[in-house]
Amino acid sequence: MKFFVEKMSLGFCGFFGRHFCQVMRQNFAQSCEKKLNDQINMELKACHQYLAMAYHFDRADISSPGMHKFFIQASAEEREHAEKIMKYMNKRGGAIILSSVPEPIPCFQSSLAALKHALQMEMEVNQHLLDLHTLAGKESDPNLCDFIEANFLQEQVDGQKVLADYIRQLERAQNEVGDYLFDKYMGATSGMHGDK
Ligand SMILES: [Fe+2]
Ligand SMILES: [Fe+2]
């Protein structure tokens, strides 16, 4: 099994009929394939963390339905991102290697703390995307550069601005009533990318 996994990670797909994925492989460096797999796993990690956040805010002793809705949407978006990259990996003839997802933080002291964590996580994801874009440039892979630019870079910046706005608004409204009103507001928004 270990041999199989190692060979798969190196791009040898000649087992179990998966050799077909190699037929159209062209100008796709193994370093890019590895970093794309890391990106898929980062998106799935974020998906899992947002899901944990969503159901933390659904607890009866927290009861913030607006925050619950916001993080449910964010979790679904991260899964979409992971699947978009998986689809792309297959188009390039790479091998998708999923890793185990780390245990997410289960609960947060406040809505503000959760949003600050979300922003930090998004900035880490964005840094990894930027590093992936740099690598694709070094490996002379314009198709990968274009895929990252067209599908991820602007959306990340837009989402980070939304989170930064929410953090500032909550900082200004820090008491029980402010938190309650902010949650009502979150219930009416359409997620991190609602204004696209
Ligand atoms: Fe993402
Ligand atoms: Fe995101």
UniProtKB/TrEMBL annotation:
The keyword Lipid biosynthesis does not apply. Its EC number is 1.16.3.1. GO terms for biological process: intracellular iron ion homeostasis; iron ion transport. SUPFAM superfamilies: Ferritin-like. It catalyses: 4 Fe(2+) + O2 + 4 H(+) = 4 Fe(3+) + 2 H2O. It is an enzyme of class 1 (oxidoreductase). GO terms for cellular component: mitochondrial matrix. Keywords: Iron, Iron storage, Metal-binding, Oxidoreductase. Residues 26-174 form the Ferritin-like diiron domain. The keyword Oxidoreductase applies. Pfam families: Ferritin. Fe cation binds at E43, E78, H81, E122, Q156. Transmembrane segments: none annotated. It comes from the Eukaryota. One of its GO terms (molecular function) is ferric iron binding. Stores iron in a soluble, non-toxic, readily available form. Important for iron homeostasis. Iron is taken up in the ferrous form and deposited as ferric hydroxides after oxidation. This is Ferritin. It comes from Drosophila ananassae. The lineage of its organism: Eukaryota, Metazoa, Ecdysozoa, Arthropoda, Hexapoda.
